[in-house]
Design brief:
With 167 residues, the chain is of the alpha+beta class. It has one domain (3-165): Jelly Rolls (Sandwich), CATH 2.60.120. The chain has helices at residues 36-46, 137-146, 161-165; strands at residues 3-5, 20-23, 49-55, 69-75, 77-82, 89-93, 97-100, 106-111, 116-122.
Length: 167
């Protein structure tokens, strides 16, 4: 099952008309082993998402104008805000996956001490970090619109949810 969250423009955070895809508890079967993070990174990589990392979510609003981003929670739980200030809060916990379209602002509001995620990018793209401070807002919006849609879903591969929701 995949849920969708439509995040509206919230200047200076452009967000995206493509929905955020939320896969609740989708990678639970890969957790609980010493190499859990690597197992999830391997899943992402086999579906075309690389340049992976293990860490957390920044405690400030930010977005990536040059790439989409997949995040999987491998430990703990957090409350995150998607879309910028005054936007909706979401729970993100162990086993959950989020696919954030380019431009969608995200921020960690609070988290358990053990909160940890892995992240990756389609085709191993290098993300930029935008904090909503750019003077060229319209140009940033055009960059976001031009980001190619991935060929595969990060979790489900060739026939995954991305094909249904990001057309």
């Amino acid at each position: 099952m995949v849920e969708t969250f439509y995040i509206v423009e919230n200047q200076p955070f452009p967000n995206n008309s493509l929905p955020v895809l939320y896969y609740p508890k989708r990678v639970m079967g890969l957790l609980g082993k010493p190499d859990s993070a690597q197992s999830i990174l391997n899943l992402f990589e086999q579906n075309g998402y690389s340049n992976g990392w293990v860490n957390g979510i920044f405690s400030y609003h930010h977005f990536h104008a040059t790439t989409h981003e997949v995040l999987a929670c491998i430990a703990g739980e957090a409350t995150i805000q998607l879309g910028g200030p005054n936007a909706e809060l979401y729970s993100f916990s162990k086993g959950d996956v989020l696919l954030l379209p380019a431009g969608v602002a995200h921020k960690r509001i609070e988290a358990s001490d053990d909160f940890k995620i892995v992240g990756a990018y389609p085709d191993g793209l290098e993300p930029d970090i935008q904090k909503g401070e750019a003077e060229n807002y319209e140009a940033i919006k055009q960059t976001i619109v031009s980001v190619a849609k991935p060929d595969k879903d990060p979790v489900e591969g060739e026939n995954g949810a991305i094909l249904n929701y990001w057309t």
